[in-house]
Amino acid sequence: MTDARETKPESERLAPLSSEEKRNLLGLGILAGAWAFVPAGLGFLLLARLGDLSDFYGSVAGSQGIAASIALYAVLFGLTAGCGLLPTYAQAILGGWAFGLVGGTIGAMAGILVGAALGHGLSRLVSGDRVESVIRKRRQVVAVRDALVRSGTLRSIGLVALLRLSPNSPFALTNLVLGGSGTRLGVVLAGTAIGMLPRTALAVGIAAAAVADGSRDLVDVVRQRGPVVPSWASSSS
Q1: Distance of CA 180 to CAs 14, 122, 123, 187, Å?
Q2: Do 176 and 28 touch, CB atoms closer than 8 A?
Q3: Do residues 200 and 109 make contact, with C-beta atoms less than 8 angstroms apart?
Q4: If you average pLDDT over every residue of the chain, what do you get?
Q5: What string of H, E and C letters represents the secondary structure of the chain?
Q6: Weakest mean pLDDT among 15-24, 86-95, 107-116, 176-185
Q7: Alpha-carbon distance 85 to 221, whole Å?
Q8: What's the whole-model pTM score?
Q9: Which of the chain's ends, N or C, has fewer CB atoms near its CB within 10 Å?
Q10: Which pLDDT belongs to residue 161?
Q11: Residue 55: how many CB atoms within 10 A of its CB?
Q12: pLDDT at 124 over 60
């Protein structure tokens, strides 16, 4: 029986990377590896210290005001998410834990946009023109890139929003893909805001509901009450 891959026309096959291309993309590969694994590990550490971190933001709010505390949270959120150090879901939970549904959602979304802009810039800096040179040699990849980048502003925003909407789409790695493909920053920010708002608000709301009884961390909540879903989320399903 003939292998289907052997009957595919040469023009439709995706050319393997050459040795020179692999060397040129080494830095990008290292960054991708770091952004794939580092946020997951550090995210668990953040969730284990929710009570302490919430107390910290509470002390800032007491001395500087709630707006200053949320602004600090958003800046730190953006820096750590944009640099691929912490995942957005863990930081959104922290926002709900520290500031409640409204304040947490506002701070988390502001941090997400800061992180998207920072991650986009870092990705462009690392990838430079090397990714574009690899893409140009592969017609199939060019078609995918053009669908994302050159299909009109509204369509591009919609595609970015769909990428961001999925919880299986890691924030830092998606920044890397969008930045490396040359997607415009305005499109990235608009699509990110639309795509990430629903799941971010859900994570913030779950945390806000969980902390309402004075629990110190998620382990304590699960031990005493089981998984917590806010009433506004359960009633909408």
Answers
A1: 19, 10, 6, 14
A2: yes
A3: yes
A4: 78
A5: CCCHHHHCCHHHCCCCCCHHHHHHCHHHHHHHHHHHHHHHHHHHHHHHCHHHHHHHHHHHHHHHCHHHHHHHHHHHHHHHHHCCCCCHHHHHHHHHHHHHHHHHHHHHHHHHHHHHHHHHHHHHHHHCCHHHHHHHCCHHHHHHHHHHHCCCHHHHHHHHHHHHHCCCCCHHHHHHHHHHCCCCHHHHHHHHHHHHHHHHHHHHHHHHHHHCCCCCCHHHHHHHHCCCCCHHHHHCC
A6: 15-24
A7: 26
A8: 0.77
A9: N
A10: 93
A11: 13
A12: yes
* Token pair for 121: 């810039």
Q: What is the mean pLDDT of residues 166-184?
A: 83
Question: What is the structure's pLDDT at 17?
Answer: 47
> Angle between the 185-211 and 153-165 helix axes, to the nearest 10 degrees?
30
